[in-house]
Design a protein that fits this description.
Largest sheet: 8 strands, parallel, barrel
Strand order of the largest sheet: 3-4-6-7-8-9-12-13
Number of domains: 2
Order of helices and strands: EEEHEEHHEHEHEHEEEHEHEHHHHH
Shape: globular
Distance between the termini: 41 Å
CATH topology of the largest domain: TIM Barrel
Number of helices: 13
Structural class: alpha/beta
CATH architecture of the largest domain: Alpha-Beta Barrel
CATH superfamily of the largest domain: Aldolase class I
């Protein structure tokens, strides 16, 4: 009997497949379906600081409408909905109580005080862990990479110090040296890191000559950068690595597990193929393990990592030598292509 159990952030998962943060992961019915399909865990939709700020502005605007009302009219109150953070926490508690699989919250803030405050509130909701989504687009020409990394590492350390639940960090692939920054975060005691964030990119409508919103799903095969860095980090950091972006089927998951990832997050795959894809991935992994004679994921996880293959500093599979080897054998690669 094959066992798909794995460990992520110190949390035992029944499957290495996690439903990542998205609109689907804010719907309880969808989350129950993901659980039925064998998801190892779910990441609830990200809470952004800007959501709370906009709600607060709306609140102030509503209250100010009554500034000139006579003071004796104390029973008159503006029609204000429940605040964004309160609604988020209520939904989070409901989902945690309704599911038997681990529930991880996702948070993205701007100010350090907000990171700490809202992370603490989320912990009180009873979730199994929290994912710090370091989604930040460079817009200031005067801030260098070192300053950005120092600030983010400081935020992660401050949040980690305040919480007792496991903390993971979702990273961009755009850092100058991902390995260095990942090591810095590992030194702060994080429990996991997700490689990588899929940014929303702007687009342009050439006929109306304006910007338009673009919902950017990843495509199959975009996991390869995550595979590379999972393979480089395995055995060299204490934190677990969760691969993300462009993972669509069981083969993709097996590849990143062999490279050293503990688990994966899927989003685009379920948008394109439905939540049934989670069950299909699990069955594909199980079938492969049976064919290969593996009973547990730990028997092959990291087997093709850099630290496993490069013990004597001779096999540079994940390094520059791989690029040189491809160039030298480009004729053979072309022959293998199916035209």
């Amino acid at each position: 009997m094959n066992n798909l159990e794995t460990s992520y952030m110190g949390i035992r998962l029944g499957s290495p497949v996690i439903l990542g943060a998205c609109d689907l992961s804010s719907d309880l019915d969808m989350l129950k379906k993901a659980e039925e399909q064998g998801a190892g865990a779910v990441v609830y939709k990200t809470l952004f600081e800007e959501q709370i700020q906009m709600e607060n502005l709306y609140h102030d605007e509503k209250v100010s409408q009554y500034d000139d009302i006579h003071a004796e009219m104390i029973t008159l109150h503006p029609d204000i909905d429940r605040s964004e953070i309160e609604y988020y926490l209520v939904k989070l508690r409901q989902i945690k109580e309704s599911l038997s699989i681990p529930v991880i919250a996702s948070l993205n803030c701007v100010n350090e005080s907000s990171w700490i405050r809202y992370a603490g509130m989320i912990e009180e909701a009873g979730v199994d862990g929290i994912e710090l989504n370091l989604y930040q687009i460079p817009v200031n020409f005067d801030i260098d990479a070192t300053s950005i990394e120092q600030q983010q590492a400081g935020i992660v350390a401050a949040v980690k110090q305040q919480l007792s639940i496991p903390v993971s960090v979702k990273l961009s692939s755009d850092y100058t040296n991902i390995l260095h920054f990942a090591t810095r975060l590992d030194e702060k005691g994080i429990d996991g890191m997700v490689l990588f964030n899929a940014f929303f990119q702007p687009d342009v409508d050439i006929w109306h000559e304006n910007h338009r919103r673009a919902f950017n799903l990843t495509h199959k095969g975009e996991y390869k950068k995550s595979l590379r860095y999972a393979g480089m980090l395995y055995g060299r950091v204490k934190a677990d690595v969760c691969s993300s972006r462009g993972i669509y089927d069981g083969d993709d998951v097996i590849k990143v597990l062999l490279s050293g990832a503990s688990c994966v997050q899927v989003v685009s795959a379920v948008y394109r193929h439905g939540l049934e894809r989670i069950g299909e991935i699990n069955r594909s992994i199980t079938d492969w393990m049976q064919r290969k004679g593996y009973d547990q994921i730990d028997q092959f996880r990291g087997k093709l990592s850099d630290s496993s293959l490069n013990k004597n500093n001779t096999l540079l599979i994940y390094r520059r030598a791989q690029y040189i080897d491809m160039l030298m054998h480009s004729d053979k690669l072309l022959e293998d292509l199916e035209w």
